[in-house]
Design brief:
By secondary structure, the protein is mainly α. It has one domain. Helices cover 85% and strands 0% of the residues. The chain has 10 helices and no strands. α2 (10-39) packs antiparallel against α3 (48-62) and α3 packs across α8 (149-174). The longest helix has 39 residues, at 184-222.
């Protein structure tokens, strides 16, 4: 199914998975999806926030998926995704960034993530999974910078688990509210639109700042 189905009818999509493949395979696919969202730095395409909310909603409405299984499963998926990205950065980061293709594709996202790390430090590592761009690239940057693995894990792992638990619980309990249940697809679309708008705003603001600095530098050279 097309990924947009996950935004428009998230709980229905999971229902289709359960019907077609059974509970065990659905749990496995959900785990892999959450892992892939941050586990491969060149593949940040999975809408993890929506997937967690939808999983919580479906568990609440149908009772087929169990919250007691989803919470540790999704938490571990998020944690392992960031661990994978950290080690990709540590062992392959320089090689990836030397490739003109990947350097061009990733440079703006990496620079925004570096700004978050420079500004918030430990807080950025803890809350990285709550930040659409940061969740993929902050662990990668921590690996490239040779930040000790133990320090990274102690700061990052609790935030990963909190992200998964919080969104699952929000989906689970909000599904019990009639209005939310009725307009779930629209609410998720609006939430995704707000996230996308915030990312675009951040991107254009950083581009504008770079443009101003570049103009100032050229003016100084002229003097």
């Amino acid at each position: 199914m097309h990924l947009i189905s996950l935004f428009a009818h998230p709980a229905f999509l999971i229902h289709q998975w359960v019907k077609a493949m059974g509970l065990g395979t659905t749990y496995f696919l959900l785990f892999i999806a959450i892992f892939l969202e941050t586990g491969v730095v060149v593949l940040p395409i999975v809408p993890g926030d929506s997937l967690l909310l939808a999983s919580g909603v479906f568990a609440s409405i149908s009772g087929e998926l169990k919250l007691g299984v989803l919470i540790p499963l999704m938490g571990i998926g998020a944690l392992l995704g960031d661990q994978s990205n950290y080690f990709i950065g540590k062992f392959l980061g320089e090689k990836i960034l030397k490739s003109p293709k990947w350097k061009k594709r990733l440079s703006s996202k990496l620079s925004r993530s570096q700004e978050l790390l420079d500004r918030f430090g430990k807080g950025a590592m803890f809350f990285s999974h709550f930040i659409p761009v940061g969740r993929t690239f902050i662990p990668f940057l921590c690996g490239i910078s040779n930040l000790p693995w133990k320090k990274f894990s102690l700061l990052n792992a609790p935030g990963d688990c909190l992200w998964a638990v919080l969104l699952l619980l929000i989906g689970y309990y909000c599904a019990k509210i009639p209005f939310v249940k009725k307009y779930l697809g629209l609410i998720v679309l609006l939430a995704v639109a707000c996230l996308a708008a915030s990312v675009l705003f951040s991107f254009f603001r950083s581009r504008r700042k770079k443009g101003k600095h570049g103009s100032k530098g050229r003016a100084d050279e002229g003097l």
